[in-house]
Amino acid sequence: MSVPCVAVERERGEAVRERLADADILDGDHEIAVDGDTIYIPVADPEAVPADLATAIVERDAAERDRPQTPAAILGYEPSLERLGDIVIVDEDDDERAREIADAVMASDVPCETVLNRASPIEGELRVRRWDVLAGNGTETVHREYGHEFLLDVAEVYFSPRLATERHRVIEQVDPDEAVIDMFAGVGPYAVPMAARGAEVVACDLNERAVEYLRENAERNGVADRVTAIAGDVRGIADAYADTADRLVMNLPHSADEFLETAVRLAGDDCAIHYYDIQHEDDPFGPGRRAIEAAAGDEYDAVVETERVVKSYAPHEYNVCLDVRLIRR
């Protein structure tokens, strides 16, 4: 049967497949095919394919995919699940229902080694949570995102796979030889791909365990020579790296405003800031914009280039990003 496919070089296949999956336009009814150096990825809605891939759409015969046994088919209802590497995460207050879902996940065709249930909200300065292990025996996994691998332990570090598309949007703006400072780097989901684009990255995090994983992830992705990983409060490196940054990532949405003075000290003459915030729907961008302008003072012009809602955070609240350029006067 002839279906629309995105045709790309084999080495780009996994990264493109992940982009199409994030956009929810993969055709799950047909098989991906490889012919020589080209991979053909079936899509359900060719009009929704990102513009930079639209010219790669071709019609091609594709074999129908055998439908896997899903947790929903076993349970008779659609459970709320989140995948992170070979871990499946559920979010159930009812222990009996949580274990029923875990049993169904393990009996299904979902590739999974461990099923976890959230046992607490995100807590403390290091933003980690407690977990109930419903199946399997570990909380460490390898997460793959746009062609990169990230080793992490969900019980020891903060990581959200739901931000993959947003991270990719920011990473694609990076040019080779930029000096980037990731002020709250975690295990490196911004820092490592930015280094892979040719940037020199200083990555800082208060969580020492996260920094250990960051160093490991820089190694496993072949960019250790372009990533300087620092454990500690980013304010402690302000003197050493003052006036050097071409780009700053400030992904600490509950309290990034407390670090804007440091961000301005780190900024070079022309510096892009990716500032994450959580605000009420009535004015999601205003508080962040005003805080950045106040921190810039008379030293910089603060030009807002993008205001973007990343996701809903709570009723009437949004997680947002402001892309702001600081230009020294």
Automatic annotation (TrEMBL):
Organism from which the protein derives: Halorubrum lacusprofundi (strain ATCC 49239 / DSM 5036 / JCM 8891 / ACAM 34)
Stated name of the protein: SAM-dependent methyltransferase TRM5/TYW2-type domain-containing protein
Single GO cellular component term: cytoplasm
Highest taxon above the source species: Archaea
Transferase is among the record's keywords: yes
Keywords for the protein's UniProt record, in alphabetical order: Cytoplasm, Methyltransferase, S-adenosyl-L-methionine, Transferase, tRNA processing
One Gene Ontology MF term: tRNA methyltransferase activity
Domain SAM-dependent methyltransferase TRM5/TYW2-type: 81-328
InterPro entries recorded: MeTrfase_TRM5/TYW2, SAM-dependent_MTases_sf, TRM5-TYW2-like_MTfase, TRM5/TYW2-like_N, Trm5a/b_N
